[in-house]
Amino acid sequence: MTALINQMRDLLSVVLCSLLSLFVVRNSDRWVFCSSFNTRFNYNSREFFLFVRDQCPEINAYFVINDEAERERLRQIYGPHFIETRTLKGKFFALQAGVWITSVGLPVYVLGARIRRIVINLWHGMPLKNIGLLQHNLTVWDRLRIRLLHSRSYTSIITTSDFFKPIFTAAFACRPEVIKALGQPRNDALFRPDAEDPVLAGLRQKHAPKKILLYAPTFRDGGEPTRLFPFPDFCPVRLGEWLQRERILLLIRMHQSERGGSNAVLEQVPNCAFVGADLVEEVNEILHHVDLLITDFSGIFIDYLLTGKPLLFVPYDRAEYEEERGFLYDYDEYTPGPKITGFAEFCAEAEALLYRESHHAPARERVNSIFNEFADGNCPRILEHVHDLLGSRVERGRC
Q1: Which of 51, 200, 303, 331 could form a disulfide with 379 if both were Cys (CB 3.0 to 4.6 A apart)?
Q2: Which residues face 32 on adjacent strands?
Q3: How many CA atoms lie within 13 A of 186 on its CB side?
Q4: Which of 181, 242, 236, 247 is nearest to 208 (CA)?
Q5: What is the pLDDT of residues 56-94, one digit of tens each?
Q6: Are 135 and 151 a contacting pair, CB within 8 Å?
Q7: How many CB atoms lie within 10 A of CB 275?
Q8: How far apart are the C-alpha atoms of 28 and 33, rounded to whole Å?
Q9: Alpha-carbon distance 6 to 10, whole Å?
Q10: Residue 154, SS3?
Q11: Using CA of residue 342, residue 346, residue 348, residue 352, what is the dihedral sign?
Q12: Closest CA to 372 of 183, 237, 107, 173
C-alpha cells in the first residue's frame, strides 16, 4: 500500500510539473545538471559540469543536489552552483533552463522534457549488463516509467562507439538518430596530468607500493550483498601476506547501490583500503594510477581499457546474475582477461598480468577498439554538440 501511495504521489508531481513546464520561458544560457538520485555529485555529469563551469563563463551552470548538507559542502568547494528541486521554487528554476544534462534521471520529472529544451543523457558508464527496457526484472510500473519519462525525454544519448547505438536504442525505445557516439566526459580524467588525488597520495606514502590494484565490483539486483574474494580457498591472512610480499596496495571500491554486507575482515588486511565515494568522489580520477583492475560485471572495465592496462574478472555468480539481470553481449568474448575461481589462481594471474605485458594484451586491444571510438577530448566534443543543437533550435525559433 505504501508503495502504491508513493507511486501516486510521484505521478501527481509529474503531471503538475509537466503542466507548469508548458508555460515556463526557457533560458538557453542556463544549464542544469543532475546525477544519481538528484543527491550525488558524480559520474559524467560531474566531469562535464566542471568543464563547462571552468571553460564557459557565459553559461550559468547549476547542479541539482537535494541533500542540504551535501549541497552546502559542495558550495564551499566549487562555488554557488548547486541547487535543489524539491520545492516548487526549485523546480521552477530548473524548468527555466534551456539545457538539461544528466547521467541518471532528470532534474525535474516531467512529460516531454525536451519540448523547447535540449536534454542530454551522458549515462554513467557504458554497460555490460542489461539496462533500461532490456532488463529482465522490471515491473510493469518500471516499464511505464521508462517509456513515459525517459524514452521521449532525450535530445541526445551519448555513447563511446557505434557498437552501443542499437543497445541504447532498444533500452530506451528511442529513435536511432538520438544516439550519438561522442565519448564519455569522465574518461578525460584518465589523460589529465593533474596532481594525484590526496587520498591515493596518502595511501601511496603510507604503503610505498610497487603496484596498485583496484577491486570494483557491481551490485546485485536481488538484494544479495556482493561477496569479495568469493573463493573456497580464500584466507584474509594469506591475502595480506601476498600483498605485503609483492608490495601491492589493494584498493576496494563498492558500488554506490550496494545494499549490505560486512567487510570488517578485509578492513584489517595489511595493504588493503576501501575507497568509497565518501573518500574519492569520482573513481576515474584515480583509475589511471591503477596497475590492474579487478571487477565482475561492472562497465568500469570499458573505461579502463583506454589505459591499456590489464583486467581480471571474478564472475562468481555469473549464471544467477545473467538470469536475474542479463547481459547485452557475450560475456567471454568481450571481457578480455582471466576469469578467476580460486585464490591461488587469483594471485598467479594477477602477477602474470602485472609483470607480463603481453598477457591478454591482444584481446584488450581488440575489445577497446570496439568499445571506445574516442580516448580524451570528450568534453569539448560534447560541448560543441550541445552548441550545435542550440544553434539549430535558434534558427528554427524554438529557443
Answers
A1: 51
A2: 62, 100
A3: 26
A4: 247
A5: 999 999 999 999 999 999 999 999 999 999 999 999 999
A6: no
A7: 19
A8: 14
A9: 6
A10: coil
A11: positive
A12: 183
Question: Which pLDDT score is estimated for 395?
Answer: 47
213, three cell numbers = 590494484
DSSP, collapsed to helix, strand or coil, labels residue 350 as: helix
43 Cβ partners below 8 Å, 6+ apart?
35, 36, 103, 104, 122, 124, 125, 186, 282
Q: Which of 155, 200, 152 is nearest to 173 (CA)?
A: 152
DSSP states along 257-308: T------HHHHTSTTEEE--TTT-S-THHHHTT-SEEEESS-THHHHHGGGT
Global pTM reads: 0.92
Whether the per-residue pLDDT at 162 is higher than 70: the answer is: yes
Residues 6+ away with beta carbon under 8 Å from 205: none
Of 31, 43, 47, 323, which is closest to residue 155 (Cα–Cα)?
31
Give the ranges where 36-87 is alpha helix by DSSP (H): 43-55, 68-78
- pLDDT at position 259 over 50: yes
| 160 membership: H or E segment, kind and range | none
- pLDDT score at 80: 95
Cell numbers placing 4:
502504491
Q: What count of other Cβ atoms lies within 10 Å of the Cβ of residue 115?
A: 15
**Distance of alpha carbon 247 from alpha carbon 212, whole angstroms:** 9
Which of helix, strand or coil describes residue 249?
strand
Helix axes 378-395, 43-55, angle to 10 degrees: 70
- 394 has pLDDT over 60: no
CA quadruple 118, 124, 130, 136: dihedral sign = negative
3-class secondary structure, 61: strand
3-state secondary structure of 91: helix
CA dihedral over 380, 382, 383, 387, signed as positive or negative: positive
Q: For residue 259, how many C-alpha atoms fall within 13 Å in the half-sphere facing its CB?
A: 7
Decide: residue 112, CB within 10 A, 0-12 exposed, 13-18 middle, 19+ buried.
Answer: middle
